[in-house]
Structures
1.
Amino acid sequence: MRRWGLIAGCGFALLAFAGCATVRSRGDRDIPTAAQSALIQQLSQSAQAAIDRRDYDQARVDLDRLVVESPRSAEAHHRLGRVLHLQNRFDEAKRSYRKALEIDPEYVGALIGLGEIEDRLGQAEPALKRLESAIEIDPQKAEAHFARGRILEASGQPDEALAAYFRTLELDPSSAPVILRIATLQLARREPDQALTRLDQVLELTPGDPEAHFRRGQAHLALNHPALAVADLQIASQNLPNRPDVFYHLALALNADHKAGDALSAAQHALTLAPNDPETRTLTERLRR
């Protein structure tokens, strides 16, 4: 159950290019005509508008045309790769990222994208190498530090992950996904008071974030604030109905708040979602007595 929350916040790097509105051709020898420049600008803006409304099919259509009109633009290939990445079309995304790197071997966004895909495919070591290369080229790239931190966390290196997250936070102080990962690790290190402060900040930045409510509920539970824990965990359970860890902690909080019947219902639901989890089974049996 402890690995569920690591998924949260993974969209941070994927959507990081959302501010791009133009395409800068790197290494183009042919100067486009005024009409070509206007078309390139129109396609770029149309693609970005589609990305902003999460219409990735339309964005892909526009970016496919864009790379035809501007085939030597590393940025165009990178943006197409990002949209394909968001659609989980990993093989096509990798081809676009690699094309961007053929044009510009130091295109950091493409290095990050390839590293993220390699991580998704279970190739942590090459993914880390790519991200470290990206950081060496551009140490100020927050997305690279964050992606590296996620891999280190998933690999069981929490201290190294925290260092990467704190470096990310230096570069992007109001990034809710980064603050959430730091708080989650602080909970694991039995630092609920520090985690609670950060989780309050996350919910100020992204009100209603169910993962943040879940983690804040855990922090309140650890600090013996059962009523506050129940409030947060109920919000989380409504928005994360398939997460057994959420219902497990809700059961703990309800029991601590002297609501035994509701606690048993939450524990039974957690057991339905994770029938082989020993902690959930033990809790359910204890609450039945």
Note: The radius of gyration is 22 Å.
2.
Amino acid sequence: MDERFLQGRHFLKSNWHLVKETASDQSRGLPPPPQQEPPQPDESVVSLPTVDKAYGIENDSLSAPATLHRLLLSRRSRRAFKIEKLALTTLSYLLWSCEGVRENRGKYSFRTTPSGGARHPLDVYVFARRIEGLKPGLYRYLPLEHALVLEREGDDSEALDAALMGQLRNSSCVILWAAVPYRSEWRYGKAADKLVALDAGHSCQNLYLACEALGLGTCAVGAYDQQGLDKYLGLDGEDMFALYAAPVGVPGGASLDD
């Protein structure tokens, strides 16, 4: 590994074990910080029009603002799922929403998510647990071809659940993001780690909205066993490593939404 980038790459990795090792202010009983910084006494506050009135949004409207408004209002982190299969067309839509290519210009591409310098330093994997037309196994998404490559066949749910620290639940599939930081480091050097993290947020929010549009549920997972998930994905943990995960399924069962 290039020593120039060691610190930034370490910053991107899961260090959830430190939660138990280090006492937080919450665990020490200190009050939480305010949700927002209050305006100063000498600052004026301008009230904004409510969004639904500003755009004339009605419950049955099919306009673009109304449709997006409903998706944003209904977006939740959903953790409880029914044991059901998803169609391959559904998975196709979810993956395209995360990293789909709008325009390929050879050395770079424009996708459904923004990326600093169009570097797109993420690889997307899918654990297909219950997908119609797909053998259970681990797949890697190829955005340029909009295709899947089978990395490993078989339902190894237990290994993945252990790496995700018990957060697999009854999901039909799991979307997993791996960082390939040199794609951004090549251009931005030591400033790349922030851009990699931002890309993951962009991609996962697209997944949330796509799931909401299809009546599915998902929940972003940032707490995982770094070495365990790297091993599960077959990554070296240095030039490529696990960054983010999101189980996906049909909502149902006990209410675990927020």
Note: Strands lie at 81-82, 101-104, 109-111, 122-128, 137-142, 147-153, 173-179, 217-218, 241-251.
3.
Amino acid sequence: MNWIKSHSRYTDTFEFIACQSEERKSRFPEISDEACLDVLYLVTSDGRILAGDESLPEILCNLRYFRWLVIFFKVPVIRLLSYRVYRWIANNRYIISQTVLPLTREKV
């Protein structure tokens, strides 16, 4: 999440709320705890709720230097593959974060 924040076009583009927090439960009661822990949810400024791979194009639109990647999501084959790629990343997120974290300049 820090990577997304650090590459966003504007400082207030993204707000991250922990799935198990009371704030998330009160602001977005339609997203269950189980669903929230399973996939990434993006709530847009106009109130749309995008889950999992549906959120990726919207996130990319708001990142510096990565906006151009959105055009790939318009290709039908890429849209079909994005779900599988998203699920693989989501299922392996803890291993990936342990691998990527040392490559970042952030201190935890």
Note: The chain has one domain: 2-103.
